[in-house]
Amino acid sequence: MIFISKTIKFLSVFILVVVLASCSKNDDNTPTVTTVVDVAVANGLTSLAAALEATNLVSTLQGDGPFTVFAPDNAAFDTLLAATGIDLNNMSAAELATVTNILLNHVIVGENISAADLVAGVAGYKKTGAVGPNSSKISIYFTAASAVVLNGQSTVTSPDKTASNGVLHIVNSVIAIPTIATFATTNPALGSLVSALELADTGSPTVPYIETVSNPTAGPFTVFAPTNTAFDALLLELDPSGDTQLGDLSPALVDSVLLQHIVDVNVVAADLPNGSVNTLGGPITANNTAFTLTDTNNRVSTIVQTLVDIQAVNGVVHVIDKVILPLQ
Asked: pLDDT 10s per residue in the chain (328 long)?
């Protein structure tokens, strides 16, 4: 495992601090702008500062913005670097690209979002500066109860560090580039979908569902993700008595149903065709004006337009209000 040379690391950060400090005043000692980079340095985020310098993102985050930055503390960054063996002072081209995308996954470009704004939203998605399939911007999922949590893994511990070009929120762990599984498992409204994937895996699935959606190198796929309410409606459709639970269905049936919701290319909402869409389970029909999907049984599912283009590294998720069924 390669470890960072502490001497070189802190020397480079010291130089960065000196340069930023010298730029923070005019010749007449009048303070000028204080960017999110300055705020990071002022709050002792030396590991973040070193990573920004190593990836040449300092000048980017000194731009006009606005930027909302979720800034990992030093312990969080050191944990990541130790686990991956990445030396910020000696990165390969692939490592540089990886670290750059991870850093951009902590930045929302074009918005100045306070912690109160996120709490008011309760839960939702934003686009980060990170890049996914076909240059689509990676999404980030936030929830807010006692604290703001990002992608179910990183908590804001010190919010609202205000800068001239945005705001910085200190978080306690590095936010990994999300997979489809990240978004499926962190949003409670998709809990039944996760249960269906797990149930299909207990049989002889066409694809190993949980493993596939969790694999950052798989795909990319497009997943039409039914809500919990959609699955509840399906169970009543199959058994109007209300006695059937999701776990009562056969894994083979669930497998055939799930295949109707997966396309083996990354299709964002703007590229949704008006006509046939070839899912892994066969063709369905899309209407890109009404934002609907019609299965071979003429059952119509509506794509929830506020929950589209949830972009992961291995595909994109569009939430729908009705489960798509194979020909019956």
From this structure: 333 344 334 434 444 444 444 444 445 554 555 999 999 999 999 999 999 999 999 999 999 989 999 999 999 989 988 888 988 899 999 999 999 999 999 999 999 999 888 887 668 999 999 999 999 999 999 998 778 999 999 999 999 999 999 999 999 999 999 999 999 999 999 999 999 999 999 999 999 999 999 999 999 999 999 999 999 999 999 999 989 999 999 999 999 999 999 999 999 999 999 999 999 999 999 999 999 999 999 999 999 999 999 999 999 999 999 999 998 7
CB atoms within 10 A of CB 28: 5
CATH value at residue 280 = 2.30.180.10
Both 29 and 74 in a single domain? yes
Place of tokens 């003429």: 298
Q: Please tell me the distance from the alpha carbon of residue 310 to that of residue 141, in angstroms, as a whole number.
A: 9
> Residues with Cβ < 8 Å from 121, sequence gap 6 or more?
142, 144
DSSP labels, 177-210: PP-HHHHHHH-GGGHHHHHHHHHHHTS--SS-HH
Asked if 208 and 151 sit in the same domain, the reply is: no
